[in-house]
Amino acid sequence: MKKYIKHLFLSTIILASLSSCEVEEFSDLNNAEVDAFEGNLTRGDLQDLVGGVFYSSRVAMGTYLDDCGVIGRDYWRFSGSDPRFTNDLLGGGNSVLDNNTFYITNPWAGRYRTVKNANLILGFLDSQDLSAQFTTAEINGTKGLLKTFVAYELLLNLNLTDEEGIRVDVSDASNLGEFVSKAAALTAIQTLLSEGATDLANGGASDFPFSLIPSGFNDFNTPATFLLANKAIAARVAMYRNDPTAVLSLLGESFMSLDGADLNKGIYYNFSESGTDIVNPLFISLDGTSASQARVVHPQFLLDAEANDNRVASKTASFGADITLDDLTGDTVLNLYQSNSDAIPIIRNEELILLYAEANITVNPAEAVTALNTIRTSAGLSAYTGAMDPDSLVAEMLNQRRYSLFGEGHRWIDVRRYGLLNTLPIDRTDADGNPDDVWANFPIPLTENQ
Amino acid sequence: MKQKNFKNRMILFITLILPCVLFAQSTITGTVNDKLGDSVPFVNVIEKGTTNGTTTDMEGNFSLSVDNLPVVVVISSIGYNTVEITYSSVSPQSILLSESAEALEEVVVTGLASSIKRTNSANAVASLSAAEIVGTTPPATLDGALYGKFAGAIVNSNSGAPGGGLSVKLRGATSLQGNIQPLYIIDGVYVDNSSISAGLNAVSGAANGGSASSQDNPTNRIADINPEDIANIEILKGASAAAIYGSRAAAGVIIITTKRGKSGETKFKFSQSTGWNEAINLLGTRDYTEARVLESFGADAAAAFVAGQANGTLVDYEDEIFGEKGIISNTNFSMSGGDEKTRFFAGVTHNNESGIVLNTGYEKTSLRLNLDHKAKDWLKFSLSSNYINSSSDRGFFNNDNTGTTIGVALTATRPWDNLLPVDGIYPDHPNNSSNPLQTRDLVRNNEKVNRLIMGGSMNLDIYKNDNSDLELILRGGLDTYGQQSRAFFPKALQFQTPVNGGLNGVSVQGDTQTKNYNLSAFLVHKYRTDSDITLRSQLGITNEFFDTNSALINSSGLVASESNVDQAANTGVNQTRLKQEDSGFFVQEEVNFQDKLIATVGVRGDKSSNNGDANKLNYYPKASLAVNLNEFGFWNEDSKWNQFKLRAAYGEAGNFPPNAALFTSYNSFSTEGVLGISLTGVRGDANLKSERQKELEFGVDVAFFDNMLDFSGTYYIKTVDDLILNSALPPSSGFTSEFVNAGELQNKGIELALNATPISNDNFQWDLGVNWFKNTSEITRLDVEPFNVGGFGATLGTFRIEEGSSATQIVGIGPNPGVNGFELHGDSEPDFQMGLNNNFKYKNIDLSVLWQWKKGGDNVNLTALLTDLNGTSHDYDTIDLDPEGQLGNGPYRVSQLGVSADAFVEDASYLRMRELGIYYNITSEMLGGLLGGGIDNIKLGFSGSNLINIFDYNSYDPEVSNFGGGTIFTGVEVTPFPSSKRYLFHVAVNF
Considering chain B, what percentage of its residues have pLDDT values greater than 70? Predict the structure, then answer.
């Protein structure tokens, strides 16, 4: 029995020593947690957080631009591995835009992700006493930049869903604001831009409290200069709201230069081939183009172009042979970008001059023509000789926008603004006699539960 | 029954001799040994027809007082054949027990440290012997051995690439977002079965457009385990049997026991299998004519086609790529032996097989050493150790968004395209962004694994007497491996050259270090009353640690043909760490009332760092009852009934939230070199609970005709509560999803198994096994909005989680949508599955055939659509889909895009001859004096797997999964690696 007791004693010790283990709790071993910034935001943290806004503002922008470019019949997107570009987006046969497919869900989520990234930073800035880390001006400048981003991201989503509206109040993820109408959304975006402008104006003469800013913002990397970009975006929004007076006044405070010397001045999305970055999503080299991977310029774009318009030559390239997919055939491809790291414009001077022309059609037609001629001249065309009535000028203005802003996501929105969607070319009719469709807007994504 | 028969005779006998021996109280003694001369302790010694009995001590000795002589005692012990010994006098007898032939099948697991006779088990626990695992044909990987052999498991191969990639799902849908693969335990060691992606997404962009889950199709690591080493596999299919494994057991537990040595003469075994594999079903090219080519591809193509036809230069590129015969060679050598105190089993296996695509293949070397040592009568140690080195080349397949994988490239390839290399220079594909021959020849996608699995245990008898004993068992296990993945896309590739928009070469290197270990201690107390009631109590504690650190280095812009990632223009690094610590205890009480009623109750308590509250104990109870009606004496001794058992079991088990589910986090990125952190898109919840599975199973087991025919039927209801859902959040929240406990899922199923030996005589034996099972699942509660999951959107067919519907329903757009806006197009759940196993033995010839039939179950087949869009489908011009009989199948499917997903959802039924083996045994008598009679036997044979495949599915194989095995949403097909059949010739020598 003594032996047993010894064994029993031994085993009890072993059991007891094992059972006393407490289980260790681990935090997220792979990623920074949101909670980590809620109590103690440092300058280094702010740099990283704002860097995230720059990053996510580009996520799925390729899809956004393809959405606008394909429905606006700037070009067709051929993809051997995804038939929906040539089917759903063009309304081939009976197909309709699905509310749970990448062409709407990805850009929509990407934009709201950026809004959330920015809103979280705004929350961190508001909820803690940061006087030891940042000056008031630095905080104001940062807020102004973030609000401008939020407003712009909301605008892009509204561009997709248009009359279906968007959510504007999304700061509380558990308690989202209702969808608001297009008009209300535009008003809210305008208000947010103007709040941002005020913040930027209070941002002092110094730099942002984060020094690393992508080169696409090179001329706009201080609160004072970023304000010029804010005003430019606000001018676009004002034009969408049909408020020419506001457009002209905002353009006056923006970086617009009417002489046409630097049409490309503006803010840009940057890309690179780094493993953590995104490559330019619109770049397909000529040699890499095939029926399974191409952006084929819509033949009507080439047919409608005035002779010698140098924009056609610079923005497109002949493939040298027909490329066919899904009953669509073209021989010219998009040639806006020359490498994976080329920047894509957010807003640039050429658009501002065109906005200036557009706003002046009703306010000062002669000034409108002057501005349009600036664009025509730079495109190698002679001065405008057409009629001066508003309809003719609108047609000319839309035409210049079509060629100047080709592939930059404007055409579809422009013709929609003027009720001219029915003028876009229809390419195909299926065996049952169903023609392609020109969609007015995307459905609200399924998961918004509307 | 037999006892009664004997009892009658005994009564007669006793009556006759009664006068002589009346009141002659005597004590009989004896020693029980096995065939190897080892003493056998704890053997039951019972005076026949009475309850008077004892057990042998550690030395195998017993003594028993009997009222009179002569007397018959029944000597029995689990794992041995029962014998009856007549004592006519008190002189000691030496009794020899032979091991029961069915010893392995006879015992099933009931506790972490105990097992029970199968005839007393209350659960339908499936078990497979070594003969069933590798006896007919050696499987390519261990999980491949589970096909069709027992009811309740759906084994699915995700791709045909060499080196595995299988998923095993037990009893239907276990979880929607959590783990669905069973827990593997080998000799007490928790064995990792991860699938670690090689980072191919960097090139394929597969996860960019649609579903974000992995489409790289890596090997699952259970493929490392060598099937030849296995003595026995037991499968606990659901919580009712697996509750003792607590919080990791919801998907079932597969318990593997490896071979161990036997004392005695050292035995050697050498075997060699050589053969090849080839594609099961290639589709062929479209039936091109000049007119068709002209219509689909234009005048230039038509001219090229005509010229190619005239010159005989048209190439069947499918055959060019998938038409190889891959050589297979498996070499196995093992030895076992030992003495009374120490026994060993040692084995080495080398497998080398090439795939049906050039530059794919799998090579594995596995070493095993198992030791058992009996230090004292009351102290035993055992050690299992296994070292594995494997290397697999898996090629570049499956979905992509860049036209670069071999499969996607093939869909765009026409016979007149000139892709063949000239002097090592591959022409660019005229119709696609990659040349599949170039991709095949230049791309490398290799996984290398170095793995060590070790388990040790100690059994210590604390005390022992006639009717009770107490044992302490300590166990420890370690599973550690390093996996290297190397994906190399040289800059010479068509899609890598910068002029084609390429990244100028991509090299992705992954390194994963995994270290898992587990410790446990148990006390087992056995007590038997005089009225033959056995009580067995167990108390144990367990502790498990899991640590995985994975780094993926992704570089592009390579210098020259250098694959070194620091010789690159751009480098990105991705590190993933997983750590988990679990700790728990376990108590169980088993009561066996004279083998008539066997009841078990138990509970496991578990805590885990993976729960929101790490130190809170979660309890998983179990209870079961088996009633052996045949033991009650209802049948007379001539009855054909050998067994009639009713059983019921209930148990609960858990399933952890996915690792990241507890946190709301950022991921880091960059913009032109400016670092930034952006939300991951998943809103975490620190209070998330584990999923809880509650399973109730009922069954009946019957056996007749001396067990020549037995039948087992089981019905189960498996309910998963607190279902963790990656519920879609309105994306305007900035998140796309959050993990919530928000639903309940129920599976109901029937499993039937029949085993029979219709013919058995000296020359000929026929054994037959049939299993049939069916499962239906239903989402019984859903607290979030119904959502689509696991496919490529409603246009192409997607799974949808909806209250009241099957968990695996496939919906999509269509002309007749239901109230949810979608039309129901199918369900990936089969109507039923059936396995039929026949073994014929005629003299020295063995023939085994295993058929498997999967009836119903749908796939989303996008391979056909992708070929249609390129005008290259093999059935492009066949007219049998269009209800109006107008369009060819190709144009018809394309016309359905955006109209209905029905054309892409296909029935994935199949009937296969899974295994065929025919062997000839040359016995030592036949060999005569060859090598001095040292050869025990030689076995020669031929075997094959998947030799006959019957299905109506329009692709290589209905058994496929683009998204791998980690999800119940399998059966989505996008240009996979085609599956293959294997032919093998065998020679095995035992000496």
Answer: 93
pLDDT of res. B215: 61
Residue A333: the pLDDT is 95
Instruction: For residue A7, give both structure tokens.
Output: 């064994």
Q: How confident is the model at residue B16 (pLDDT cuts 50, 70, 90)?
A: very low
Fold for A38-75+85-281+349-424+437-448, please state it: 1.25.40
CATH fold of B2-100? Immunoglobulin-like (2.60.40)
Query: Which residues partner with B378 through β-bridges?
Result: none
Look up residue A208 and give its two tokens.
């942002």
Per-residue pLDDT of B934-957, as tens digits, reads: 788 899 999 999 999 999 999 998
The DSSP 8-state label assigned to residue B118 in this structure reads G
* CB-CB contact of B73 with B45 (8 Å): yes
75-104 of A, contacting B, C-beta below 8 A = 79-84, 87-88, 92-96, 98, 100-102
Cα separation, B980 vs B10, in Å, equals 63
For chains A and B, count residue pairs whose Cβ atoms are closer than 8 Å: 347
Of A7-21, B389-403, B494-508, the one with minimum mean pLDDT is: A7-21
Contacts of residue A346 in chain B, CB cutoff 8 Å? none
- CB contact under 8 Å between B731 and A276, yes or no, is no
Structure tokens at B67: 């009222």
Structure confidence by residue, pLDDT tens digits, A195-254: 999 999 999 888 999 988 999 999 999 999 999 999 999 999 999 999 999 999 999 999
Element (H, E) at A13: helix A2-19
Mean per-residue pLDDT for B112-139? 82
Domain ranges in chain A? 38-75+85-281+349-424+437-448
User: What would the mean pLDDT of A274-292 be, rounded to a whole number?
Assistant: 87
Tokens of B955: 């692709």
User: Which string of DSSP letters, residue by residue, matches B549-603?
Assistant: EEEEEEEEEESTT---TTSEEEEEEEEEEEEEEEEEEEEEEEEEETTTEEEEEEE
Distance, in Å, from the CA atom of B733 to the CA atom of B598, rounded to the nearest integer, reads 56
Q: What residues of A are in contact with residue B729 (Cβ under 8 Å)?
A: 173, 447
Give the distance from residue A181's alpha carbon to the nearest chain B alpha carbon, in angstroms. 15
Q: Over the stretch B22-73, which tens digit does the pLDDT of each residue have?
A: 445 788 888 887 765 667 777 888 888 787 888 888 678 888 888 888 888 8
* List of chain B residues whose C-beta atoms are within 8 Å of the C-beta of residue A26: 579-580, 609
Q: Does A171 touch chain B (CB under 8 A)?
A: no
User: Quick check: B609 contacting A, CB < 8 Å?
Assistant: yes
Which residue has better confidence, B399 or B578? B578
| Domain spans, chain B | 2-100, 142-148+179-282+323-396+443-857+908-990
ipTM computed for the complex: 0.88
Q: Check residue B405 and give its pLDDT.
A: 86
User: Which residue from B minimizes the CA distance to A275?
Assistant: B572
| Nearest residue in chain B measured CA to CA from A29 | B577
Identify the H or E element spanning B293: helix B290-297
**Inter-chain contact A291–B570, Cβ cutoff 8 Å?**
no
What is the nearest CA distance from A227 to chain B, expressed in angstroms? Answer: 21
With CA atoms as reference, the chain A residue closest to B495 would be A288
Say whether residue B788 is in contact with chain A using an 8 A CB cutoff. Answer: yes
Of B498, B681, B788, the CB nearest to A100: B788
Fold of B142-148+179-282+323-396+443-857+908-990: Maltoporin; Chain A (2.40.170)
Residue A92, Cβ density class (10 Å: 0-12 exposed, 13-18 middle, ≥19 buried): buried
- Cβ–Cβ below 8 Å for B898 and A30: no
What average pLDDT does the segment B424-452 reach? 90
> Which residues in chain A are closer than 8 Å to B666, comparing Cβ atoms?
31-34, 52
Q: Is B898 on the interface with A (CB under 8 A)?
A: yes
For B:261-300, CB contacts with A below 8 A are 297-298, 300
